[in-house]
Amino acid sequence: MSPESKKLFNIIILGVSFMFIFTAFQTCGNIAQTVITNLNNTDFHGSGYTSMSIIYGVFSASNLISPSVVAIVGPQLSMVVSGIFYSLYIAVFIQPATWAFYTASVFIGIAAAVLWTAQGNCLTVNSDGNTIGRNSGVFWALLQSSLFFGNLYIYFAWQGKTHISESDRRTVFIALTVISLVGTVLFFLIRKQEDTKAPGEEDSTNEILGDSLSAQNKMTRAVAAFKKSIKLSFTKEIMLLSVTTAYTGLELTFFSGVYGTCIGAVNRFGSEEKSLIGLSGIFIGVGEILGGGIFGLLSKNNRFGRNPVVMLGIVVHFIAFYLIFFNMPNDAPIAPMEGTDDVAYMIPSKEVAIFCSFLLGLGDSCFNTQLLSILGFLYSEDSAPAFAIFKFVQSICAAVAYFYSNYFLLQWQLLIMVVVGFFGTITFFTVEWEAAAALVARGSDYSSI
């Protein structure tokens, strides 16, 4: 197998591993608030929104140290250990206890920071300037396939159910825990960077991959990774991209947790309201997979860079927000267990609700594939710190969004995303134009990015 084939193999295994883990975790996040609402008349008094706020809050803080952790442990083992913590969080729902639920939320926040920093490094060291766009798209399409499989099961398993029984809950979460563990084991198939490099090829990001380094050298590299994270945080490009990244954190919260809760709370959907949560997740996944696949395959033939894809993403999202505003009751995100009988500006339509799910997924893939691509392109020599900053900003905004989702009506949540999304698109354009100008000045072909 050629070095290039081995690198593509690593990208595919990385994507498949994430697909299994996030089939479990994203399905868990999509149904968590609905499941918990059905538990709140017992001794359990947790909140899915609060749990997610804790996860993303800890996640954001942990990104400050995650490059150092990956530097010491190595990316492969970092992803394996992180995957185990994801599985433990999901397993808590088998027999929920409030203390275990919130404790697991803290630990998975730390694990998520390490997991995504290691993922960013693995993606970068197995790519180059010509393949980063393709590899970002391939990884994203495989990752977002997770939304399809888990939610397809939820759709059929919860068909016609208005209440989630203890047996229903345990069956779902035992299956999700096993799926998460399978994804964790698959990380062992990733070839180390030393095995994937061509003879004589050097990779500056290899700094965090040396298993044979002495403890002292590893600590030195850990400190260096932390310093690079701080230094990069104040560069013009990172600060501009942080606005775009902030938007992805807000809309991540909306499509992965809030929107499914809204659909499940609309009583006018009848006996299908709970199964529609699964169908919504499926169509979010279809949008994500379609976007990741198309933008990954077309990246090498894209003469115009990343800006048109991001423009498509914001237009698609604005259309989705407009339709959701007209279709969903304002109190849907914070409705009680009994749901809501309110009507927005039209009688709630299941078809419109599911179409909006597709648009949310498609728009999200536009932003995330291009952010992964531009970060890997601009920071090929500092991939771990750059991706740590990306996840730091994204996760802290997701934490804030999950917190206010406990209190804000739907219209205010949509308005916040519209404003931040508008400015995030402009700042992304600015960075892309500067990157293109720098390439032209060096005599490189802009389409190569």
UniProtKB/TrEMBL annotation:
Segments passing through the bilayer = 7-26, 46-65, 100-118, 138-158, 170-190, 238-256, 276-297, 309-328, 386-404, 410-431
Q: How does it sit in the membrane?
A: Multi-pass membrane protein
Per the record's keyword annotation, is Membrane included, yes or no? yes
Q: Where in the cell is it found?
A: Membrane
Task: Specify where it is mainly localized.
Answer: membrane
Query: Entry's Pfam families?
Result: UNC-93
UniProt-recorded name of the protein? UNC93-like protein MFSD11
Highest taxon in the source lineage: Eukaryota
Entry-linked SUPFAM superfamilies = MFS general substrate transporter
The answer to keyword Membrane applying to this record is yes
Q: Which InterPro entries match?
A: Ion_channel_UNC-93, MFS_trans_sf, UNC-93-like_regulator
The family annotation for this protein states: Belongs to the unc-93 family.
| Coiled coil regions, renumbered to chain | none
GO CC term, one of those recorded: membrane
Name the keywords, alphabetized.
Glycoprotein, Membrane, Transmembrane, Transmembrane helix
